[in-house]
Amino acid sequence: MSAEGISRKRKRPNLFTNDVRALMYAFGDVPNPEPESVAALEDILTDYIVDMCHEAARMARTTNRNKVKVDDFKFALRRDYRKLGRVEELQRLSKEIHEARKTFDDSEGKSLSKNFGDKDK
Predict the structure, then answer these.
(1) How far apart are CA 73 and CA 51, in angstroms?
(2) Which of 5, 32, 64, 77 has the fewest beta carbons closer than 10 A?
(3) Over the chain, what is the mean pLDDT?
(4) d(CA 58, CA 75)
(5) Residue 9 confidence (pLDDT) above 60
(6) Which is nearest to 87 in space by CA: 69, 105, 107, 106?
(7) CA 29, 31, 34, 36 torsion: positive or negative?
C-alpha cells in the first residue's frame, strides 16, 4: 500500500466506531473490544461501502446517468443473493410504511374535518 493510501486511511473519521463496537458485542465479543479490533473492522466496513458505491456509480455511468439509483446498487449486489434479498425486503417495507402513513394521514384528516364541520352546524 502506498504512503498516500495509508495517510488517507488515517484521516478518515471514525463514523462507525460505536456501531461496530455494539455489533461486535452482539456477535459474542467482550463488552469493550480492543480499539485496534474495532478500527480494523471499521476499515473493512468503510472499504466495502466505498467499493459498493464505486461499483454502483460505474453502473450509472454505463447507462449515461449522473445520479446513482437503488437499482445500480441492486445490480452491484446481483451475485450476493442474501444482500440483494435484504435490499428488496427493505424497499418493500419502506413502501408499505409509506402507504400506511399516507392512509393514516388521509383518514385522520377526514375525521378531523368531519368533527369540525359538525361543530359549525
Answers:
(1) 11
(2) 64
(3) 85
(4) 11
(5) no
(6) 69
(7) positive
Q: What are the cell numbers at 108?
A: 385522520
Rounded CA-CA distance 5/17 in Å is 20
- State which amino acid sits at residue 91: Q
Q: Which amino acid is at 109?
A: G
What mean pLDDT comes out for the span 43-56? 95
Task: Name the residue among 41, 9, 7 with its Cα closest to residue 23.
Answer: 41
Q: d(Cα 35, Cα 42) in Å, to the nearest integer? A: 10
Hey, how many other C-beta atoms are within 10 angstroms of the C-beta on 29?
Answer: 16
Check: CB of residue 45 under 8 Å from CB of residue 16: yes
CA–CA separation, 54 vs 26, rounded Å? 30
Q: What whole-number distance in Å separates Cα of residue 52 and Cα of residue 82?
A: 15
Contacts of 94 (CB under 8 A, 6+ apart): none
